Amino acid sequence: MPEGPEIRRAADSIEQVLKGQAMAKVQLMQPKLSKHNKTLQGHTVLSVETRGKALLTHFDHGWSLYSHNQLYGRWYIMPRGELPETQRKLRVALHTDDHSALLYSASDISVWQTENLWAHHFLSKIGPDILSPALTAKAIDKRLQERQFSGKSLSSLYLDQAFLAGIGNYLRSEILFAAGINPLLKARELNAAQRARLGRQTLAISQRSYKMEGVTQPVKRYRQLLKGGLSFEQARFAVFGREAKLCHLCGQPVKRIEANARNLFYCGGCQT
Q1: Is the model's pTM score more than 0.85?
Q2: Which residues form the FPG-type domain (predicted)?
Q3: Helix or strand run (H / E) with residue 92
Q4: How many percent of the chain have pLDDT more than 70?
């Protein structure tokens, strides 16, 4: 499933072609939503917002299109009149005179009056977006100590969208590694220095993944690994997907466990 950085990059691409543009044609392919084609058609896109893994396209007349890619959804940006080569099913098509933003395969789609989005079943429950400029390491530290979160293991908490929205499986492993914290610890078992470090790395790794298109390694190390002959997929992560391979920092083998029905990767040397 795409995580927060991937959804934000998709939103950036959509904004490039839709922001400030009136919709020449809107196609919501699900029968229950087709009545809203006329609601949105002819109106101008003000912005494309992300909240965790959800994407919100806001229009100038107070309506918004909500979409969540879930596991298989994907946005394509195409010249108007062209379609991508894919076997996926088209769910949403937003057309300007020159371009189209096309959403395939996603099923969690709805149209809302913007002022009522607070009542959406998903949006009403999620925590702060990991890429929000307003989110700080101190705010994360504070949330780690809140009663509803402090009793959870970090392996669970760092998939909980109510804690922070946008973190998924690869970010969970990479953030905990960068902070040097064992994933089986509970939030309340962390000391002040560990909480502060975890807050800083949560922001740093999320921002790096967004800016570098999925790379979570420090830039210098990532470039050195590429020069050494590794591919993008082999060099982008410190621990995720690297079971039994040696840690770039301490040389110990990376381990894999199952946590919350998902694979979690960590270094037994760096995350004791």
Answers
A1: yes
A2: 238-272
A3: strand 90-95
A4: 100
